[in-house]
Amino acid sequence: MTKHHDEEDEDRSPILEATDRQILSLLEGDGRMSWTELGHQTGLSTSAAQQRVKRLEAKGIICGYHAALNLEAIGAGITAFIFLNPIDPEEDERIPDILRTFSEVRGCHSIAGAASYLARVQAPNTSHLDQLVTRIRKECHCGTETVVVLDTMFDDLGMLGTR
């Protein structure tokens, strides 16, 4: 029997049971939650909670734990999104590797539409942002369009928790 591309493949699209979803939701909210508290919140023993998390890590469902930074406090309070359109289509695949070398770049996405990539950047001020965009244009050999964030209402909502 031939498998269609939209059929669920257990390796690519795991079906999670309710307890695993609850664990993921809790860890999205507090990645430093103790095993004891995680067990208490899920009705599992401490060791069972730890074993579940280790299994979710081994399956690649939990990919890491991160600290949320106050970007203004570290001198990177300006957020901007830069659309990048390569001048030479042959250079297109090099852009992500070049962007990775800029400390101000926080993310890079291949996108559909007029541009090829969307980069999220952090800068201390608009003057620095202007210089950054100029450097990106030169090093990536691309045209850009930049959108500056005025205010962020929310960012990085959890996928499984309540909103």
UniProtKB/TrEMBL annotation:
An example Gene Ontology molecular-function term: sequence-specific DNA binding
GO annotation (BP), single: response to amino acid
Pfam families cross-referenced by the UniProt entry: AsnC_trans_reg, HTH_AsnC-type
Listed transmembrane segments: none
Segments forming domain HTH asnC-type: 16-77
Family annotation (PROSITE patterns): HTH_ASNC_1 (PS00519), HTH_ASNC_2 (PS50956)
SUPFAM superfamilies cross-referenced by the UniProt entry: Dimeric alpha+beta barrel (SSF54909), Winged helix' DNA-binding domain (SSF46785)
InterPro entries in the cross-refs: ArsR-like_HTH, AsnC-type_HTH_dom, Dimeric_a/b-barrel, Tscrpt_reg_AsnC-like, Tscrpt_reg_AsnC/Lrp_C, Tscrpt_reg_HTH_AsnC-type_CS, WH-like_DNA-bd_sf, WH_DNA-bd_sf
Keywords assigned: DNA-binding, Transcription, Transcription regulation
Gene Ontology terms: cellular component: cytosol
UniProt keyword Phosphoprotein, yes or no: no
Superkingdom of the organism of origin: Bacteria
Protein name: AsnC family transcriptional regulator
UniProt source species: Cutibacterium avidum ATCC 25577
